[in-house]
TrEMBL record:
CDD domains: cpPDZ_BsHtra-like. Residues 276-364 form the PDZ domain. It comes from Leuconostoc carnosum (strain JB16). This is Serine protease HtrA. Gene3D superfamilies: 2.30.42.10, Trypsin-like serine proteases (2.40.10.10).
């Protein structure tokens, strides 16, 4: 990994850190755009079914295929006139009362004046938007439950293994190829890729699963499943090329199911996501040269992972707790923070107003302080 001198690092904003890399990522906007309820949904992703020894791609697909749908985005062209502008995928994950809920990608339904869902049997029905989250690129739709014959279950994305076989299901290039399935493996359990809003505002890194299962434009919003037929991720993006223009194959990314479950539950409950911030700008310790770690950070050599505080928000939570520039955060609530992905994952398990314990090094001295999350992300 390339390392940087602290004196040459340019900060990119509160919570976000400098993220190295030269790859071009896109969330299927290239072809798909060529370019609320208060009911609690008790969805869980706490258990992963044992995968039978005789499990095959066919048996896994059969368990979930009826719950996978195409999502059609329509723009309004005149009074009561609509034109289909893009297509993606989705998966029905819950029936509650007269309603059924579908998770898809935010960019699949972005700007839609009308949304339709094409079921596995080809029937098209109307759907409404429950809520969306730009940062994770997730959205929840609602439709009449009478049209639903199957729902998907979530597996625990924390229990996936590199090399494990997986399937990606969706509608590559549109609904004419609906219910297409591709097979691959888990290439990496956690990758940090840059996330940004539609207006270009950076949100820092997004933690995703990497897979070599073929993910093409139109697969966005569809499920990545294990061989027990459980959803372990929502397909969202792929690596198309490097900054040098080199073509890249077999590098797709999915939003982990544990993250998906938390987001969809909150979207169904509140219609939006509010995230806490601790009020820092940061870089990962692994990106700092050994010389700077010794000369400027002055941390023990045994500290090999963490995030380096490069600045704090005036009167923000971290500043009030006493954190300063060049402090190195190594844990939140006792959970190891090896880098920005871990910090985000642990921080976003909590809500605005919660108090969390943060462990950090100020030079050679280890401290643990309580920080009240009074600041919202982006404020």
């Amino acid at each position: 990994m390339k390392q940087y001198s602290l004196t040459k690092i340019v900060l990119t904003g509160i919570i976000a850190g400098v993220i190295g890399g030269s790859a071009l990522l896109y969330g299927q906007r290239g072809v798909e755009n060529l370019q609320t309820s208060t009911q609690k949904v008790n969805t869980k992703a706490s258990e992963t079914s044992t995968i039978p020894k005789n499990a095959t791609a066919t048996t896994a697909y059969d368990k979930i295929s009826d719950a996978v749908v195409s999502v059609l985005n329509f723009s309004q062209t005149g009074q009561r006139r609509y034109e289909e502008s893009s297509e993606g995928s989705g998966v029905i994950y819950k029936k509650a009362g007269d309603s059924a809920y579908i998770v898809t990608n935010n960019h699949v339904i972005s700007g839609a004046s009308k949304i339709q869902v094409m079921m596995h049997d080809g029937k098209k029905v109307e759907a409404s938007l429950v809520g969306k989250d730009i940062m994770t690129d997730l959205a929840v739709l609602k439709m009449d439950a009478k049209n639903v014959t199957a729902t998907a279950s979530f597996g625990d994305s924390n229990k996936i293994q590199v090399g494990q076989k997986v399937l990606a299901i969706g509608s590559p290039l549109g609904s004419q190829y609906a219910s297409s399935v591709t097979q691959g493996i888990i290439s990496a359990k956690k990758r940090l890729v840059e996330a940004s809003s539609e207006n270009g505002q950076s949100y820092g890194g997004s933690t995703v699963i990497q897979t070599d299962a073929a993910i093409n434009p139109g697969n966005s919003g569809g499920p990545l499943i294990n061989f027990a037929g459980q959803v372990i991720g929502i397909n969202s993006m792929k690596l198309s090329s490097s900054s040098s223009g080199t073509s890249v194959e077999g590098m797709g990314f999915a939003i982990p199911s544990d993250q998906v479950v938390n987001i969809v539950n909150e979207l169904v409950k509140n219609g939006k996501i509010t995230r806490p911030a601790i009020g820092i700008s940061l870089v990962e310790l692994s990106e700092i040269t050994v010389d700077d770690q010794k000369a400027l950070l002055k941390i023990p050599e045994t500290v090999t992972g963490g995030v380096v505080v490069m600045g704090t928000t005036d009167n923000g939570p971290a500043a009030k707790a006493g954190l300063k520039k060049y402090d190195v955060i190594t844990a939140i609530e006792g959970k190891t923070v090896a880098g920005q992905a871990d910090l985000r994952e642990e921080l976003y398990k909590h809500k605005l107003g919660d108090t969390i314990s943060v462990t950090y090094y100020h030079q050679a001295t280890k401290h643990t302080v309580n920080i009240k999350l009074t600041q919202k992300l982006g404020s």
